[in-house]
């Protein structure tokens, strides 16, 4: 695979015209410092409210005190993407996507949703771009890459086309379609913010980074249209997005918890449009929109951090930063100061690779006008949830063999059935055009053969290095087929006598099946 940064530099020819922007090195450093600081501030400003408001706005007080920023050192919004920067640095700033994927999968930190599925896929030998593709993941449209894409925009000031092309490589570790476009949109906003101070212009310009017919772009376009009609009432725009786009999060079926990239991306756009370049107001609106409040506030705040620079971030948000600037982020060898330093190193490399100049005190950037030129993709076209069959509905399942009842407890009281022996068998008749089996992965997980309408489809392996699938908002999708002809079908699962060499058992956990239909 080609050098990752070299791949980016090859897209300079897509720039429509030559426009240059000059920065002093001090000015650029201040913007980078502001970017990372605001990311830390934003994630902690919204941390306590994360998923406290589902399908409604958050209307309670939002508390802040300067020392709160230190807890950002523990947040996955930071250490997740810093792990990518560590890998890039480890390979002398020339890491390949394969190397990034490997280090991400084998890192010590825990993961959820699209990131977790990507880790499982990589363990199973499914590498990017397939590790985030819909045939191997029901999480392709999730928010994960959107959360982790900031650094790509940070290291590409004004080099927006290069940024979105790097996204098209890195993002495929865990995303596809709207999940990928979310990262492109966010990183494009960061890139543009280096030379454009008007957040409204930034949001509009960043839309050029993704295909206009994507549902992600349509959702952001609805935000912009509503803003034009109601420029002083963000709640009217929030309600429009809620009514039109909040339903049918395929990742978390039949639950108000929603980590769909476009919905949370809309909240970022709402915050930036109505925040009027005020950091606190922007973060507050992002939080009051609900759902993934810390991630959305952090993405939005980072845009303001670049615009304002560290010097212009209000003192009450940054006053404690010097006290922690040399403390490591969890699971990394990066500190705030080191993140700033490495970002500046990558910036200079990318500027030179894209027709700019780096002098003793001044940097000249050849501004790139973004334009999406890739192949449009949609993870699950025209699919909507139809119904689900939970294991508590025992009369709808046919189970043969050594199946046992199981509950995780501690707040998770859904009933599972566990197959424990080879040749244990499960059958489910359903009507639709897609199905997903939800359960768990674990160290004692086994393998099973899956049949649809008595035709073999694939062998699944639910072995994993740790328990994964606990709690109803993080079930493991252990099998899915979204390409069935509409109609009646039968799914059959038969536990195999084979198992992963490191597995301690043949267990297969099943909690429910979700059935999909064509829209």
In words, what does this structure look like?
By secondary structure, this protein is of the alpha+beta class. The chain has two domains: 4-367, Orthogonal Bundle (ADP-ribosylglycohydrolase fold); 383-518, Jelly Rolls (Sandwich), CATH 2.60.120.260. 39% of the residues lie in helices and 17% in strands. The protein has helices spanning 4-9, 25-45, 76-90, 97-105, 113-123, 144-148, 150-154, 160-170, 178-193, 199-206, 215-229, 234-245, 261-275, 279-288, 293-308, 315-318, 321-324, 336-353; strands at residues 19-24, 357-358, 362-367, 383-390, 397-400, 403-406, 416-419, 425-432, 434-440, 447-452, 455-461, 476-481, 487-495, 508-518. β10 (447-452) and β11 form a beta hairpin. α4 (97-105) crosses α5. InterPro entries: Ribosyl_crysJ1, Ribosyl_crysJ1_sf. This is ADP-ribosylglycohydrolase.
Q: Give the strand tally.
A: 14
Count every helix, treating DSSP H or I runs of 4 or more residues as helices: 18
Distance between the termini: 38 Å
DSSP helix fraction: 25-40%
The name of the CATH superfamily of the largest domain reads ADP-ribosylation/Crystallin J1
**CATH first level of the largest domain:** Mainly Alpha
Unreliable segments of 5+ consecutive residues: 1-17
